[in-house]
Each structure stands twice: as structure tokens, then as C-alpha cells.
Amino acid sequence: xxxxxxxRNIIKKQNKKQHLARVITVTSGxxxxxxxxxxxxxxxQLSRLNKRVIILDADFGLANVEVMLGIRPQYSLADMMFxxxxxxxxxxxxxxxxxFISGGSGLRELTNLDRDQIQSLVSxxxxxxxxxxxxxxxxxxxxxxxxxxxxxxxxxxxxxxxPEPTSITDxxxxxxxLCRHEEFYQNMVRIHMIANRAKGYGxxxxxxxxxxxxxxxxxxxxxxxxxxxxYDDKLPKSVMRQKPVTVAYPDAVSxxxxxxxxxxxxxxxxxxxxxxxxxxxxxxxxxxHSK
Length: 291
Ligand SMILES: Nc1ncnc2c1ncn2[C@@H]1O[C@H](COP(=O)(O)OP(=O)(O)O)[C@@H](O)[C@H]1O
Ligand SMILES: [Mg+2]
Prior knowledge:
The structure is a single chain. The protein has a domain at 3-8 and 25-151 and 234-289: Rossmann fold, CATH 3.40.50. The protein has an 8-stranded mixed β-sheet, sandwiched between helices. It is globular, with a radius of gyration of 18 Å. A hairpin with a 5-residue loop joins strand 3 and strand 4. It is built from 14 helices and 8 strands. By secondary structure, the protein is of the alpha/beta class. The chain binds adenosine-5'-diphosphate (ADP) and magnesium ion. Residues 35-36, 59, 64 line the site of magnesium ion.
């Protein structure tokens, strides 16, 4: 039995009895388009809809989510994987009952794992799958290898774009890189798009129509539209206050838009039967068996 097969067997066995979290990886072509704000506020709104939500910060650059939440976690994912910390040590409580895990340099340290280490990582992620209904992974900008690996292993991806031309071309470049990757299978992943900082419904929809149609035509890739978030000056204000906008200004237009997006994700077209949810354990198993 080779390593991949062994892993698949473990997963098959575990899947029968385990609860698997729905994992949503938030990404974009360009930085500064609102990924971290979308991750945090969507998490809060999903929590208000009674989902157990954990954010995994995989943006190693600026530790955005930490700054946004005003939380400085003592330990990161890497401390659990390599330094004997337990799951409960690395989850920090955030607002509205959300949990927060800092990726630290964890994912980068994971390049040369042996079989036992991969298995232990996957079992740790099973424990996490049990604790959450939804895990939101916030990624850094651009087309780095870690981001591509994460996105390739995810069963659901949330692509954030804004109406600026560079955001659109960079989003297209990211999707093109994905599609050309030998590990990419269209029927294994669902891609949702959010139009952020749109002037209104019309501009958001126009952005989706533009990007969605070139993506379909040139990459034969299906991408659905989750909705838009309007430009809202309460949002930068809340960032300054180190509070998520949905907490600082729950009635702001952006907060209400995030609630709507959370509802669409939960009840609407966001919830696909045909894409198999593999949980966080499945994500990591997939990410490492391909290496
Ligand atoms: N809907 C919005 N309205 C107004 N400003 C926004 C909106 N979304 C994001 N911003 C601004 O963009 C900045 C970058 O957002 P952030 O979530 O950190 O982006 P990313 O994680 O993609 O780099 C925020 O600090 C905020 O000032
Ligand atoms: Mg960010």
C-alpha cells in the first residue's frame, strides 16, 4: 500500500463516523481587496446564524486578522504540529463566539513531512472538524505556492474581487494558474465570487458578468456569484478601531451585505450537494498527498 492509499483508507474509515467542517478558502488575485474583512465578518454573521465558525489565518505576511480582531494569540498551528500544544491551546476566542487560529509559519514548515507526521496532522484536523461547522481560511494575496496549494485542495473557494481593472486582471490570472495546474479538477471545487467595494447592485453584477464570462469562455471554468458588498466608509473606520464592522456597526450597509452573503452561503446557491465536503482533514490530506 502506498502512502496516498493508506491515507485514503484512514480517511474513508474516519469519514463514516466523523463530522466534517465545511471549509471555505478566501482568496483574491490582488491584495487589499477585502479578503480579511470578508473572512472575519462573514464568520461573525455565520456565527449569528448559529454556526460554529473558526477562522484559520493563512496570511503569513501581515497577520491581518489578528490586527483586525485586536487578538494576539499565544500559539499557532505550528505549535500544535511541532511543539506539542493541544487544539484548545491554539484556538483564541474572538467576538460573537468565533474561534481564531493563527497559521503562523505552520503551513510553510509543512513541506517535508514524513508519513507519520502527515497522519498525525490529518488526525489533528479531524479534531478540528468536530469542533466547527464552518472553517474560513483567510489567505495572503497573490499567486504564491502556498495559496495555490491551499486553493487546489479546497472544495470551496471564495474569490474576492473589486471593480478596479487590476483586481479583475489579477483575479483572472489566479484562476488561470489554478486551471492550468495538473492537480486541478473542476468538479472537485466550487468557486464563488464576491464583488467588494461596488457602488451598488449594478456594478457588482457587471463585475461578475465580465469576469465570469471570460473565465467561462477561456478557462471553461464555472464560477457562481454570491453577491456584492457596497463601498462603506464604516469599514475603514472599524479597521481603525480594531473591531470588525459587523461588531462596531452592525447596521452598516457592509454589515448587512455580509449577513446576506452568509445567508446565501448557508441556504442558497452556496450550498452544493454535488461537491463533496472533505473537511479540513481532507483538505490537508489532499494538500500533502500530492507532494
Ligand atoms: N466594502 C468596503 N468599503 C470600504 N472600504 C473597504 C471595503 N472593503 C475593504 N475596504 C478597505 O480595504 C482595506 C483592505 O481590506 P483587507 O480586508 O485587509 O484586504 P485584504 O485582506 O484582501 O488585503 C480595508 O482596511 C478597508 O479600509
Ligand atoms: Mg488580508
